[in-house]
Amino acid sequence: MERRVVKVSVTTPSRLHFGIIDLRGDSGRIHGSAGVAIDKPSIVLEAEKSNKIRAVGHRAERVTSFASELIDEIGIEGGVEFNIVSDIPEHRGFGSGTQLALAVILAIKKLYDLDIDIMTGAKILERSRRSGIGAHLFLHGGFILDGGRKINDVDVIPPMLFRCDIPENWRFVLGVPEINLRVAGKEEDSAFKKLEPPPKKLIWQISHTVLLEMLPGIIEQDIRVFGRSMTKMDSIFGDYWIKVQGGRYGHPFIYKGVNYLLDNGAYGAGQSSWGPAFYGLAQDQYHAEQLSRGLQDYFDEENIEVYSFISKPQNTGAIVVSED
């Protein structure tokens, strides 16, 4: 007897974006990026079949917009009711837009038993065109390196070149200052257009860091090498973003947080994507708790509003639970 799914729940990871490899494109490909999936913050999206497209909760309008566009494009007769139980904060460096869009796609796919893969849906909703990290981490979790795209293939999602589990005992200490650094969509496109192509030497430095430090570090579970490569990748390209960000990082508070983590035993630290979230790598839960408490106390003494918390690696993609 055919199983009819009437309700689904999708739980997504967040992503930390370490940086972009190549903005020159001399080889015929451009971008390329690396990042990891973490277990929180996360989106929990409930969905069930309906005659209409409706949503309740934070970012309800965004959810209905994604769903309407996908349903219209595919030609589904019917709708979906969504409930956003929990959400990833927008414009904080966690990839919330891509995770929400893909959660909507996966929910509709399961409810209507669609023969459509997530990447096809992502193209319809115009997600992950510059970096494929968010989409690949949604599907697979772990650490991922993507290969950028061909110069003229603007609608292609960058392919996944490499994926590896993150050691389960590692932890990421997060700090999120209460500042607005919204760089997304048109603002992000404008930021890229303001920059001159980076020097070849910079591309070589980042490529060497990724190939001979970051990848061996994660494969061999060498936290010192992997952490060092995170810091190097972030800082090398961060210095290139000075004309857009005003500094290596998007705000002086991020400088303070990254430097605190590095000075107090984090194996690596940096700013995720455009920020304002920043991260530090700890060897285990105890180490992470020490760093997180210290980071919170440091900012409290400075009278700077920052929320610090600990995330575990997520070595699986989004989790979906279906109900008949």
Concise synopsis of the structure shown:
The chain is α+β, with helices and mostly antiparallel strands.
Sequence-ordered SSE layout with sheet pairings:
Elements: E1 7-11, E2 14-22, E3 29-38, E4 44-50, E5 54-56, H1 60-74, E6 79-86, H2 96-111, H3 118-124, H4 133-140, E7 143-146, E8 149-150, E9 160-164, E10 171-177, H5 186-194, H6 200-219, H7 223-240, H8 242-245, H9 252-263, E11 269-271, E12 278-282, H10 285-301, E13 306-311, E14 319-323
Parallel strand pairs: 5-6
Antiparallel strand pairs: 1-4, 1-14, 2-3, 3-7, 3-8, 4-6, 7-9, 10-12, 10-13, 11-12
Describe this structure as you would to a colleague.
There is one protein chain. The protein is 39% helix and 24% strand. It is α+β, with helices and mostly antiparallel strands. A five-stranded mixed β-sheet has the order 5-6-4-1-14, with helices on one face. It starts with 6 loop residues before the first strand and ends with a strand.
